[in-house]
Amino acid sequence: MIYTVTLNPALDKTAIIEGLTLNAVNRISSLRVDPGGKGLNVSKVIKELGGESVAYALLAGDTGRVVERMLGNLGIDCRVLRVEGETRTNLKVIDTALGQNTDINEPGPELTDEQLDGMLAELVMEVREGDLVVLSGSLPRGASVGTYRRWVGALKSVGARVFLDADGERLSQGIKAAPDLVKPNELELGGMLGRVLDTDEKVVAAARELIDAGLDRVMVSMGSAGALYVTREASVKAHPVRVEVGSTVGAGDSVVAALAFADERGLGLEEALRLAMATGAANVMQTGTQAAPRELVDSLVGQVRLTYL
Fold first, then answer.
1. 231, β-bridge pairs
2. Which of 43, 171, 209, 307 is deepest in the core (most CB within 10 A)?
3. 126 φ, ψ to 5°?
4. Start-to-end C-alpha separation, the chain
5. Burial of 100 (0-12, 13-18, 19+ CB in 10 A)
6. Considering only CA atoms, which of 207, 161, 202 is closest in space to residue 183?
7. Closest alpha carbon to 148 in 168, 130, 164
8. What is the rounded distance in angstroms from the CA atom of residue 88 to the CA atom of residue 105?
9. Is the pLDDT of residue 248 over 80?
10. C-alpha–C-alpha distance, residues 271 and 278, integer Å
11. Using CA atoms, how far apart are residues 301 and 304, in angstroms rounded to an integer?
12. Residues 84-113, mean pLDDT to the nearest whole number
């Protein structure tokens, strides 16, 4: 079974505005509302790919109840830790005239490490050896920077595989517990190692440093330049599929979802990478953070080109 964890979920509102103007009244031409947060985005994509997941989420207030209801309507099994406060609402503004995306994110509720440890204990009791857990996204206010390190360590101690998608110090700390896969972008990876990664060769060398430190796989996303997938045995450049962009929000989450789905289904390296890149491309074609249909993903798989480095 695949489990996803979202410690700072949101209700995502995606507003389409033609010609966003500061210090003026702007009219929204269309508005879409989705349950959001990186882990929940992963669960939504896994569902569309034809898989199943259990979504652990920390939800609060009326907004949290809306998010839970929407997940239920999507057929996603959700385990909720209810806390005081209000789940955040994030506004994504897409300016169709300028081709720009602007995110305005609320902070969300504040928690203690003790509350998060209670949620972790429930998850550890449920997962079984060989299950896959995806930890992704920002942490709630009040959570210590080493939260993901504790979660990765606890989950691996019971035999679970762990994918980690975080940034900054949260990623640096989480890597110390040796997750099975991490997915930084090249700027995050370079920032963590203290150098600029401006060529594929430099990115691969940096990823191999993480492999040598105990990780199994590193997927480095590079936006319009594609992605680099590095294991102990191989380094592969996955070239991007050129599509019309609706929204880039959640693109990285869809790649992680496809990799998790492929891992659970036992797909080979090339099949998994083609699925991941096609899923990422299909999802940037969407408006909002809804998951792209499997039919669209399948139509793009054949366009993914892989190069061994």
1. 217
2. 43
3. -90, -40
4. 33
5. exposed
6. 207
7. 164
8. 8
9. no
10. 11
11. 6
12. 91
Cβ contacts of 304-308, under 8 Å, gap ≥ 24: 304/238, 304/239, 304/241, 304/273, 304/274, 304/277, 304/278, 305/238, 305/239, 306/236, 306/237, 306/238, 306/239, 306/270, 306/273, 306/274, 307/236, 307/237, 307/239, 308/234, 308/235, 308/236, 308/237
**Lowest-confidence region among 39-53, 120-134, 276-290:** 276-290
Query: At residue 48, what are phi and psi to the nearest 5 degrees?
Result: -70, -30
Q: Is the pLDDT of residue 184 over 90?
A: yes
Sign of CA dihedral 119, 122, 123, 129: positive
Structure tokens at 261: 């789905």
Q: What angle do CA 243, 244, 249 make, to 5 degrees?
A: 95
Residues carrying an active site annotation: 253
d(C-alpha 8, C-alpha 152), whole Å = 17
Could you tell me if 140 and 107 are in contact, meaning their C-beta atoms sit under 8 angstroms apart? no
Say how far apart CA 68 and CA 290 lie, in whole Å: 15
Cα–Cα distance, 162 to 143 (Å, whole number): 20
Backbone angles phi, psi at 244, to 5 degrees: -75, 125
Residue type for 61, please? Answer: G
The structural architecture, per CATH, of the domain 2-6+37-86+112-308 is 3-Layer(aba) Sandwich (3.40)
Check pLDDT > 90 for residue 70.
yes
Q: Please, what is the average pLDDT of the chain?
A: 94
